[in-house]
Amino acid sequence: MRAAVCRSYGDPDVVTVEKDFPVPGLHAGQVQVRVGAAAVNFPDVLLVADKYQMSVPPPFVPGSEFAGVVAAVGDEVNTVAVGDRVFGTALVGAFAEEIVVSPEALTATPDGVEDWAAAAFGVAHRTAIHVVRSVARVQPEEELVVLGAGGGVGLATVQLGALFGASVTAVASSAEKLDVALRDAHPAGVDVVVDPVGGGLAEPALRSLRWAGRFVTVGYASGTIPRIPLNLVMLKGIHVLGFQMLSFATNAPDEFGRNEADLIDLLSSGRVLPHIGRRFSLDEVVAALQFVADGRAIGKVVLDVSRVPGR
Ligand SMILES: NC(=O)c1ccc[n+]([C@@H]2O[C@H](COP(=O)([O-])OP(=O)(O)OC[C@H]3O[C@@H](n4cnc5c(N)ncnc54)[C@H](OP(=O)(O)O)[C@@H]3O)[C@@H](O)[C@H]2O)c1
Fold first, then answer.
1. For a pocket test of ligand 1, which of 218, 290, 292 has the largest count of ligand atoms closer than 8 A to its C-beta?
2. Ligand 1 atom 21: the closest Cα is on which residue?
3. Could you read off the pLDDT of 125-170 as tens digits, one per residue?
4. Given the CA of residue 299, which atom of ligand 1 is nearest to it?
5. Is-contact 28 75, C-beta < 8 A?
6. Counting C-beta atoms within 10 Å of the first and last residue's C-beta, which end of the chain has fewer, N or C?
7. CB-ligand 1 contact for 244 (6 Å cutoff)
8. Where are the alpha helices (DSSP H) in 130-244?
């Protein structure tokens, strides 16, 4: 099969497209998916550089979010069938024509939703709905500030926040601009801050909260985990909250399941669609990874895996 392969760690240009990479073996309890599209995320860049929180030994195929069609099912799989359209997540393997995963990693792609949208819809929007609805518990007409609003999680949080009736302020870039912009826009303070960026943006954003406002830490795209003076929290009675997908799914399974089901309805009905900043072919995988590594992506970046070169 055609696959983007990392044979040694390094910058994105260590990844090469190979025409005869072996299709992963299909065992009992597994599903083989013919990939139509895959989303490119910053952790893919980190895995190729061996700077992620876990290592994958080369050679491996990067890529963690995908959508396509079930091509084969192993013994004991009865939740999906050959020909079903699905989307899902894995640690690696998505930048290839075929991927093998467990059925639990897959969700049915709603009718009318194309592969590029389904591939880009996974983690960012799921994070956003759980954070907005269950962690921050955003109420209609509350003032919601979203940091890193040009990124996947940020943009999805802006969409979901608006859908749940909040008045949303989307914030990008520097701490100085953030401080000025928020004081100006919300002199009385805001109700909720959602922060997938961390670093120098977190403290001015937390300072912009009103009394008893909520600050939700979601990620550290800046590369720095902020240290906030707790007196700021004390003085304003601020609620500091955190979200992490796996621990939320494990500890609040009912709420997790409800949010996920409602999100699929929102996708099916077209009320929520991921914003695609740029699409690349599989042959352009190095450019796609570099685009994400350089922080140039707005929203999600998608690889059209099934697009055949020259057509
Ligand atoms: N907790 C969870 O379960 C969970 C789930 C999904 C993702 N995450 C985490 O959430 C974070 C964001 O993920 P993502 O997919 O949205 O990433 P992304 O698409 O790469 O977006 C990150 C955004 O962060 C901003 N940013 C990056 N570096 C910055 C810096 N030095 N200073 C200021 N802003 C900076 C940029 O926003 P602007 O340039 O537009 O300001 C960028 O658009 C990551 O750390 C990810 O690991 C956590």
1. 218
2. 151
3. 999 999 999 999 999 999 999 998 888 899 899 999 999 999 999 8
4. 19
5. yes
6. C
7. yes
8. 152-163, 175-185, 202-207, 230-236
